[in-house]
Amino acid sequence: MRKFSLLFVFVIFCISCIKSFVYGKMLTIDNYLDMIANNNSGLKSIQANIDAIKGKLAEIERVYGFFFTAGISYSDDKSGRPHSHGIKLDDLINWKYDLSLNKQFETGTKLYLGVDGSYGTYDYVNTDNYSIKDIAPFVKLEQSLWKDINGGSTKASIAKQKASARSQLYLQEYKKQKLLLDATKAYWDLSYAKTVVDFKVVSFDRKKKILEWNQRRYKMDLVEKSDLLQSQAAVKSGELNLKLAYEDENRDNRTFNLFININDDSARYDVEKFEDKGNSFKIDKNLSRKGTRADVLSALEGVNTALYDQEVSQRTRGADLVFEGKYALNDVAQNQTNKSFERIKDGDRSSYSIGLRYTLPLDFKIRKVIDKGYEAAKIAAHSLAESAASKENNDWIELLDNWNNTRIRLEIAFDIEKIQRQRYEEDRKLLERGRTTTYMVLQSEEDLDSSTLNVLKGILQLIKIDEEAKAFYSGVNEVL
């Protein structure tokens, strides 16, 4: 038994030495989160989605940008149809082209600035041939008088796309916050596991000292064999608890490494002492709610998306009346026999046109079905937002309750741990003077272990609650 205990102590010593060597690199929580940002595939995917959505937001405004259009056509007509004053054409060859710079304004007005023209040869039957070149700079206006009056349809469409993009952004931000929160919890879980290992080593040392004390006293026939057996059982229990603590540490280390994309179990870092943060929780620190959780903001933008989507549908599927106006300056040159161009006599060569275009879809029955669909989508979005807001409020109240209750429990746990430590020291002194039993000392040692672990668990719980409050309720997501 003694040889095995000595071997176990030697193994623990070697592990401690290895840990001291491998854990040489200190990794703070900030360094850890930086490594996650650089190495975590899941976070990279989320961030890429966020960047992609932000990039697409700029595309929504393209409707108000300048557009250049150009077109050209060629025709060759040998039909012999009468063309002018009943004179038949033997052949007509014509090129037509147009170039324009287009822009739509927020009022819904579409402006076209450009030039169009044509070049053609006219071969009349029994008469001279003509070549005509026409160049006409023009300005053209288009304005919807119903659907897009004051840009209503366009603005609603843009607002819908922006609301949809913001909804996706908030949802991605929520995923990012949750991943980073899980990573932060993994960091402090590992710190807790390392602290528990160190604590179990100290507890194991205390049990060994009691065993050594009883072994000497048993040889001197000062204690019963049951005391010796009790001490031996306590040491074995300490060995088992220490082994379990190392298993927990290894498991938490794998989770820790997973977030920084390391699959090697031998890769280990030293981390901050989580129990050092316990002092900050002794001060009257309260949780603060500075903003709405990102998943709720996403649901609220989903409501806006449904509302604008319904408006766009109503505006675009009904009747419309469009005003069109065009003014052009015409310059025509003409050739009769020698194919050289000569300018037509000076004068006002301008032209203009105005018109109205009315459209009316005749799918009246389908519209009712469509209206019901959009109304159902709006109700669904409202219900989802209400549910998300209700859950967030409930989660916040529960978080506050956990915070306050854990703080109270931690204060009590600190007091209990202090008393149990005093009790253990007193029982150990009594054992040295032979005024108490081994069982009583080991019991007080177990009670001390339990009370110390309760303190450590309370600190870890407060850290996780505080990190969750900062992750989800800091308000930074509302600037998206």
The tally of beta strands, per DSSP, is 11
Cα-to-Cα separation, first versus last residue? 65 Å
- Structural category: alpha+beta
What are the secondary-structure elements, in order, as H or E? HEHHEEEEEHHEHHEEEEHH
Low-confidence stretches at least 5 residues in length (pLDDT < 50)?
1-24, 332-347
The profile of the biggest β sheet is:
9 strands, antiparallel
Gross geometry? elongated
Strand proportion: 15-25%
The tally of helices reads 9
Rg value: 42 Å
Mean pLDDT: 84
Bin the helical content. Answer: 55-70%
Fold and architecture overview:
With 480 residues, this protein is an alpha+beta fold. It has helices at 2-22, 29-39, 41-60, 152-219, 225-259, 278-282, 294-316, 364-432, 438-473, and strands at residues 26-27, 66-77, 82-84, 87-104, 110-124, 129-144, 270-271, 320-329, 331-335, 342-343, 350-359. The strands form 2 sheets. Strands 2, 3, 4, 5, 6, 8, 9, 10 and 11 form a 9-stranded antiparallel beta sheet that branches. Strands 1-7 form a two-stranded parallel sheet. A hairpin with a 4-residue loop joins strand 5 (110-124) and strand 6. Helix 2 (29-39) crosses helix 4 (152-219) and helix 4 runs antiparallel to helix 7. 24% of the residues are buried.
